[in-house]
UniProtKB/TrEMBL annotation:
SUPFAM superfamilies: ATPase domain of HSP90 chaperone/DNA topoisomerase II/histidine kinase. Gene3D superfamilies: Histidine kinase-like ATPase, C-terminal domain. Residues 190-395 form the Histidine kinase domain. This is histidine kinase. InterPro entries: HATPase_C_sf (IPR036890), HATPase_dom (IPR003594), His_kinase_dom (IPR005467), Sig_transdc_His_kin-like_C (IPR004358). GO terms for biological process: phosphorelay signal transduction system. Its EC number is 2.7.13.3. Pfam families: HATPase_c. Keywords: ATP-binding, Kinase, Membrane, Nucleotide-binding, Phosphoprotein, Transferase, Transmembrane, Transmembrane helix, Two-component regulatory system. The lineage of its organism: Bacteria, Pseudomonadati, Bacteroidota, Cytophagia, Cytophagales. The chain crosses the membrane at residues 15-36, 152-172. The keyword Acetylation does not apply.
Length: 395
């Protein structure tokens, strides 16, 4: 009834949002990298100039007028790029723009500077300053703090934004789920409540008729009794889903047998329903019987629909997983579910039937996962061959 298109629309919207986010993220990174490249180039120029200044100073006449100018305007102008000047053996002669604690011993200071030189070496090749009298100095340098920060900034920013979006998404979907829960529970409670009154009166009438000699040996009374029983079961289901259901250790094989009893009487005799078990018959599992029966009924009804009135359904209690959990596999020989739809079938509103509401499996999963702390999923399915649903329970 409800078009299943809403789900494909929703996933397309999600895809679109992800693409937009990726484009924005990518653009931020690319743009900052551009800035980094430009700044890096500028720092390179600054260092080149610094090296030229040093060379000039080394080669100039001592009393040259330009010396002061070069010292102040070129050498001192570098206030951001950390540099270390060394001799040919890499002994530190001078350094600049490095934060070296003042109150440390000469030895430690030297070690510290030597480590800086090693670090700088990995970033940039040193600049050689050759002097007239045939000796050389090396200028080691590394990226300024600003440049380093700028390099990592977009990643930090994007990580923060991603974390925030994730939190927002979870908060939002949590509140949406809570809202859905209230609708399910409220509607179920109200239905159970409204059914209650006429049902108890019907029951009284049935007891009255059964006892009345006028209707002795009337098959109608028996039929009426069955319908009243069925109504009672339905009311119990709604009332259980509208409250915190009580789970009890129940002989699981018998519960399964009982659950399909109702269906067996209603499907054509071309559909065979078999129950098998790997467990001893008295094995128990923690279930709420009215809700659990509802689940089995929903899954089996779907199986009957999928087989179009001819085939076999096998319900098998098996051991599953490492913990030897108890699982119920429900296998049919119906039309199968394509791989891409095997998760989607559990969404409320997803149906391929003319008269379906798409609620059967949504409800079944809800009952198993929320009320029984178990799991329900499509174990395997092949189009044209059949489907197996697996239901895992706590023991
Ligand atoms: N055993 C199965 N084999 C093949 N397809 C299945 C099977 N079980 C479910 N489906 C598919 O999953 C869809 C959703 O099932 P679900 O029980 O949630 O809703 P529905 O049966 O369509 O409607 P209703 O609310 O009446 O149960 C079905 O319409 C069908 O396409
Ligand atoms: Mg169904």
């Amino acid at each position: 009834m409800i078009p299943t298109k809403i789900y494909s629309k929703k996933s397309r919207l999600k895809l679109l949002i992800i693409i937009v986010a990726l484009v924005i993220g990518g653009a931020t990174v690319v743009y900052t990298n551009l800035l980094v490249a430009k700044l890096s180039e500028r720092e390179q120029q600054l260092i080149d100039l610094y090296a030229k200044g040093l060379r000039y100073m080394g080669n100039a006449e001592i009393d040259s007028d330009n010396l002061v100018f070069v010292q102040e305007e070129i050498i001192d102008a570098n206030r951001s790029v950390p540099v270390i000047l060394t001799d040919e053996q890499e002994n530190v002669l001078a350094y600049k723009n490095l934060t070296i604690p003042e109150k440390i011993s000469e030895k430690r200071k030297k070690a510290l500077l030597q480590r800086e030189v090693a670090k700088m070496k990995t970033q940039h090749k040193p600049i050689v300053v050759a002097y007239q009298d045939d000796f050389r100095n090396y200028i080691f340098y590394k990226d300024s703090e600003l440049l380093t920060q700028l390099r990592y900034y977009p990643y930090v920013q994007l990580t923060v934004i991603a974390c925030l979006s994730l939190i927002a998404y979870y908060a939002f979907s949590y509140s949406r789920k809570a809202e859905q829960n209230r609708v399910w529970v409220g509607l179920a409670k109200e239905t159970a409540h409204q059914l209650g009154t006429p049902l108890s009166s019907l029951m009284a009438w049935y007891e009255y008729l059964k006892a009345s000699p006028r209707f002795e040996n009337e098959p109608i009374v028996e039929e009426l009794g069955k319908d009243v029983k069925r109504l009672e079961i339905i009311t119990e289901r709604f009332s259980n889903i509208g409250s915190v259901p009580v789970l009890k250790d129940e002989p699981i094989l018998r519960v399964v047998e009982n659950a399909i009893g109702y269906l067996r009487n209603r499907v054509s005799n071309k559909v065979s329903i078999v129950v098998e078990s790997d467990f001893p018959p008295e094995t128990t599992a923690k279930v709420n019987v009215p809700l659990f029966e509802w689940v089995i009924e929903n899954i089996c009804k779907n199986a009957v629909d999928a087989m179009e009135g001819k085939g076999s359904i096998t319900l098998r209690l098996v051991r599953a997983g490492a913990k030897d959990a108890l699982a119920l596999d429900i296998q049919d020989t119906g039309k199968g579910i394509p791989k891409t739809k095997q998760e989607e079938v559990f969404l409320p509103g997803y149906t391929t039937k003319k008269r379906g509401w798409g609620l059967g499996l949504a409800l079944a999963r809800r009952i198993i996962e929320n009320y029984h702390q178990g799991r329900l999923f499509v174990k395997s399915s092949e189009v044209g061959k059949g489907t197996t649903f697996r239901l895992i329970l706590n023991r």
